[in-house]
Design a protein that fits this description.
The complex is a heterodimer of chains A (90) and B (161).
Chain A lengths: L1 H22 L10 H14 L4 H9 L1 H21 L8
Helix pairs in contact in A: 2-3, 3-4
Chain B lengths: L14 H23 L8 H27 L2 H21 L35 H26 L5
Helix pairs in contact in B: 1-2, 2-4, 3-4
Classes of the chains: A mainly alpha (90), B mainly alpha (161).
Chain lengths: 90, 161
């Protein structure tokens, strides 16, 4: 019984993945290109940056980058907190 | 170094490694600063550039041992630098609040980094992209200080009292 459930779930997953792979858009041709085309056409002009990735990371999606930096800050703070006030040989 | 004895862990490694670490200090720093400064022109930016400079701290701690490392590398200073980087980044974002948060108010303006660039391929001009280079600098400082702080803390195991 248990084995039948496992096989059934795996078969379902396999069928789902197979169907997804067959329905997927053609390789190298993304389904939606409006955003890409916008960044390529206007990014350089709007931000003055040659590097479109930098333009997206630091301008269009700057809030995301700030969260990323805050995560690193929190990590360093956490490590500082873990090692806080541990005295030598005591 | 003690006569005829293996160097203790706290004294660092052999003079060869110490000399090489000192010789590598300048190229590593320059390369990291180059990656940070050209973030808006070439692949790279604040995150990888800061990580590159932070490797120097790891190299120095291993080469010179944790006693010298802990004395020379002040944790409070790195903590402060990290805060300055993150607050500077947020401040630059807030300065554009006239139109929206994270508005690139310096791009295509007569001010700093305000040079307009022609569309399409171009040689890459340094004084372009508005707030992006400044934000790269802030993020570079933050990443460098945070990674260095984590490396120092793990390496010295909090034995600072």
């Amino acid at each position: 019984m248990k084995k039948a459930i496992k096989v059934g779930v795996l078969a379902l997953l396999f069928a789902f993945l197979l169907a997804s792979a067959l329905l997927m858009h053609e390789f190298g041709k993304p389904a939606q290109t409006e955003m890409d085309n916008y960044f390529i056409a206007r990014g350089q002009e709007e931000t003055g940056s040659n590097n479109i990735v930098a333009a997206v990371v630091f301008d269009y999606r700057g809030l995301d980058t700030m969260g990323e930096a805050a995560v690193l800050f929190a990590a360093a703070t956490g490590v500082f907190l873990v090692f806080r006030g541990r005295k030598k040989d005591e | 170094m003690n006569k005829g004895m293996a160097p203790r862990e706290s004294e660092g490694m052999t003079p060869i490694i110490k000399t090489v670490a000192l010789a590598l200090a300048v190229p590593i720093t320059v390369f990291g600063l180059y990656i940070i400064a050209h973030g808006h022109l070439t692949p790279g930016g604040g995150f990888p550039g800061g990580a590159v400079i932070a490797t120097l701290v790891a190299l120095f701690l291993i080469a010179f041992g944790k006693d010298i490392g802990a004395r020379a590398l002040n944790k409070k200073m790195f903590s402060g630098l990290e805060t300055v980087g993150l607050v500077g980044f947020a401040l630059l974002a807030f300065l554009g609040l006239g139109s929206s948060f994270f508005n690139n108010f310096l791009a295509n303006s007569p001010g700093l980094f305000g040079m307009a660039i022609p569309f399409g391929p171009n040689p890459g001009f340094m004084w372009t992209a508005g707030t992006i280079p400044l934000m790269n600098l802030a993020i570079g400082l933050e990443v460098f200080a945070a990674l260095s702080l984590i490396i120092i803390l793990f390496f010295t195991e909090g034995e600072d009292k």
